């Protein structure tokens, strides 16, 4: 039983009090804390007591002071200073440390979950208490940090009539450990105080919300606004006007950025004769052929079979790209030289191969070509974001294709990356990571022990975004000017994957790392007027971007043998070849049931991210898992996208346009007009409308309601028939439109 304490200010130093509990209380709720362990129990007015944290290792308490709304004390003779403040529905917790080190703060038992946990993994999930599938998933996850592994630095607890949400005001250097607790899971939150910023406190907010699964997310949005850290999409578009083209745009990656397509060869005997000849360029190209391509060139007849045509053209394209890279993959890459080399080499190809090729080099190309842009435009898709999956090289080979896309009203962007720097001379195919010797040497993240932080998949080194900025600015300027892109995609900069760097001459905290990444995105958007997006869009690194890929469908099954390695498995995602159409992006496969239950079960999905960032950041799938990738969840994914008012994402190649463009057009007809109106509006509400939670509703700032029926039966609501497997849009004037999931 909780015993009220006096609310007048008093100071107590007695050891007896140091071992007892202190209480903060207002008209809304009461909070009881044990200063020695930071054990917490809370009780909303008229509600039950919730043992929120069992407390951490016991410490000596001193200098304890309490007023009506505030409690302050020290641990271990001033090694830590702690403060709790109760302000209406918020309990603010702040901890200062005298020295660097990791400190446990919370030990949340499974019983604290109440009915379930509200967890922002990707877009968001509801984890029912005691659910065996979720328990295994979280235990296998083992631990996560609150900047990278969570899309928002928060989690919530559903107690029916009320909710409790933890918000990490400081989202960096935090670790959440998962452990089994009876039939459920317990969480332990730890924070590392780093020597790079000893005065930076760990601050949290515990928010008492109503019976709303989005309560914590809405509180986080309010906090961002109050702190000046929320940027509306309207504000971003005002600074980067091309960003208006994101409104109503589906997203797609184009593949096949090599210089030539088989159709560009009009005289095969003549083409082969030149390729086999003694000319300087053909000889250099043959030097890059692999055994299969070399054998085909030696054995092929005057007019190759279709497979041989593709093989030889792919080999020529790969060799041309390798020759182009020779000019700039050096110890000190020159961005202007690099941007110009592809066009120069295209001219050399035209002169060397002459009449064996079609006469207009500007019309050459497969997936990335003027012809592709014309086909997309003719299909009746007026708004698109188009990314070049192979990077900016496709745009440098085909600036006319980029121009045709821009002229059609699309945003056309390259994939680009500066997160990892490779050692000069290594892995030439990872073009974006060739940043030069100086970046590799001087911009690498240095870990606490003095070692460099290995880059993506243990290749190269991760970089300090402040240090790499001059290279980024020079390359983006040069490529954008030459290719004509009107948008940009920066890989990894918005993932929340940030590191402390202990380089003596340039120390860097995780917070500063995040700021550097956001500043880079903002510079491209604002200074160059190229609306910029990035991967994921996690809350702590979301400023500066207009769109993000990875929130709706994140990376799924990373490390799963069947999905990643076993080519005979029905779940195998595919390979990173052939270049014009890599199977990892185009092969459609089923998703394992256990992963489907976690990532795509509509009854346990929540639009937490949209509750914060709808109207600020446009989000869609990670590029590894487009809207067509997983055959057995396509319908659920489609309905969730429309319910949350977020765009689909697709992959396109020259050979898949005929099949995929009609699919895109079907969803576009429903999505585009809604998103044009709602993209700048906040999501104001989410509701489950049926006991099985398969009938769901979202509401937006202009009064629009979207109702999704994920179930297999029609439903009735307020006299309105809601078709099975459908989304109904109800406009402010009462008019409505209906979309039924594809193939259902």
TrEMBL record:
Q: Which organism is it from?
A: Janthinobacterium fluminis
Q: Where is the signal peptide?
A: 1-20
The name under which this protein is listed is Glycoside hydrolase
**Pfam families on file:** Glyco_hydro_129
* Entry-linked InterPro entries: GH101-related
Gene Ontology MF, one:
hydrolase activity
Organism domain of life: Bacteria
Q: Which UniProt keywords apply?
A: Hydrolase, Signal
């Amino acid at each position: 039983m909780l015993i009220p304490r006096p609310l007048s200010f008093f100071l107590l130093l007695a050891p007896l009090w140091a071992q007892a509990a202190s209480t903060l209380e207002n008209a809304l709720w009461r909070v009881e804390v044990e200063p020695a362990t930071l054990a917490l129990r809370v009780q909303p007015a008229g509600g039950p007591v919730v043992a929120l944290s069992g407390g951490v290792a016991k410490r000596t308490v001193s200098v304890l002071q309490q007023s009506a709304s505030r409690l302050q004390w020290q641990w271990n003779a001033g090694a830590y200073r702690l403060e709790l403040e109760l302000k209406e529905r918020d309990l603010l917790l702040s901890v200062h440390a005298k020295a660097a080190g990791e400190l446990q703060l919370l030990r949340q038992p499974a019983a604290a979950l109440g009915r379930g946990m509200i967890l922002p993994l990707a877009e968001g999930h509801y984890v029912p208490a005691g659910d065996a599938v979720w328990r295994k998933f979280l235990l296998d996850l083992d631990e996560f940090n609150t900047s990278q592994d969570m899309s928002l630095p928060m989690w919530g607890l559903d107690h029916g009539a009320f909710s409790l949400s933890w918000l990490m005001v400081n989202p960096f250097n935090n670790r959440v450990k998962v452990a089994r607790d009876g039939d459920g899971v317990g969480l332990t939150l730890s924070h590392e105080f780093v020597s790079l910023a000893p005065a930076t406190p760990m601050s949290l907010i515990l928010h008492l919300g109503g019976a709303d699964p989005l309560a914590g997310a809405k509180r986080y949005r309010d906090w961002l606004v109050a702190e000046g850290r929320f940027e509306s999409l309207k504000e971003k578009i005002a600074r980067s006007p091309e960003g208006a083209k994101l409104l109503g745009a589906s997203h797609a990656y184009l593949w096949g950025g090599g210089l030539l397509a088989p159709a560009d060869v009009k005289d095969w005997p003549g083409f082969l004769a030149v390729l086999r000849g003694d000319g300087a360029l053909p000889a250099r190209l043959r030097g890059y052929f692999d055994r299969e391509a070399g054998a085909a060139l030696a054995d092929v007849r005057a007019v190759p079979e279709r497979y041989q045509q593709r093989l030889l053209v792919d080999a020529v394209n790969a060799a041309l790209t390798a020759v182009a890279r020779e000019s700039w993959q050096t110890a000190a890459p020159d961005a202007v030289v690099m941007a110009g080399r592809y066009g120069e080499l295209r001219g050399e190809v035209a002169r060397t191969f002459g009449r064996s090729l079609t006469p207009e080099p500007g019309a050459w190309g497969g997936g990335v070509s003027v012809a592709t842009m014309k086909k997309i435009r003719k299909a009746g898709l007026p708004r698109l974001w188009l990314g070049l999956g192979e990077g900016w090289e496709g745009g440098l080979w085909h600036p006319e294709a980029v121009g045709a896309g821009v002229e059609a009203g699309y945003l056309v962007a390259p994939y680009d990356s500066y997160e990892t720097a490779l050692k000069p001379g290594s892995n030439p195919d990872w073009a974006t990571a060739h940043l030069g010797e100086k970046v590799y040497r001087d911009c690498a993240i240095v870990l606490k022990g003095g070692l460099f932080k290995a880059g993506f998949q243990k290749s190269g080194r991760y970089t300090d975004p402040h240090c790499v900025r001059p290279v980024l600015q020079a390359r983006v300027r040069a490529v954008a000017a030459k290719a004509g892109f009107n948008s940009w995609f920066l890989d990894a900069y918005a993932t929340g994957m940030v590191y402390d760097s202990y380089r003596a001459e340039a120390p860097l905290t995780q917070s500063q790392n995040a700021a550097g990444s956001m500043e880079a995105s903002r510079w491209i958007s604002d200074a160059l007027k190229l609306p910029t997006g990035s991967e994921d869009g996690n809350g702590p690194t979301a400023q500066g971007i207009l769109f993000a890929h990875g929130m709706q469908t994140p990376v799924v099954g990373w490390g799963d043998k069947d999905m990643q390695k076993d080519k005979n498995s029905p779940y195998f995602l595919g390979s990173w070849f052939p270049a014009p159409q890599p199977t990892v992006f185009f092969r459609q496969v089923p998703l394992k049931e256990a992963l489907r239950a976690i990532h795509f079960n509509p009854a346990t999905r929540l639009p937490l991210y949209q509750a914060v960032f709808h109207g600020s950041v446009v989000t869609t799938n990670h590029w590894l898992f487009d809207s067509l990738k997983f055959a057995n969840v396509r319908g659920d994914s489609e309905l969730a996208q429309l319910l949350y008012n977020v765009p689909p994402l697709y992959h396109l190649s020259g050979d898949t346009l005929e099949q995929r463009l009609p699919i895109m057009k079907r969803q576009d007809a429903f999505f585009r007009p809604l998103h044009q109106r709602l993209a700048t509006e906040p999501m104001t509400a989410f509701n489950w409308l049926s006991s099985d939670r398969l009938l769901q509703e979202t509401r937006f700032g202009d009064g629009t309601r979207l109702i999704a029926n994920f179930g297999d039966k029609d439903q009735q609501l307020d006299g309105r028939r809601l078709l099975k497997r459908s989304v109904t849009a109800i406009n402010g004037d009462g008019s409505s439109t209906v979309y039924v999931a594809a193939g259902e």
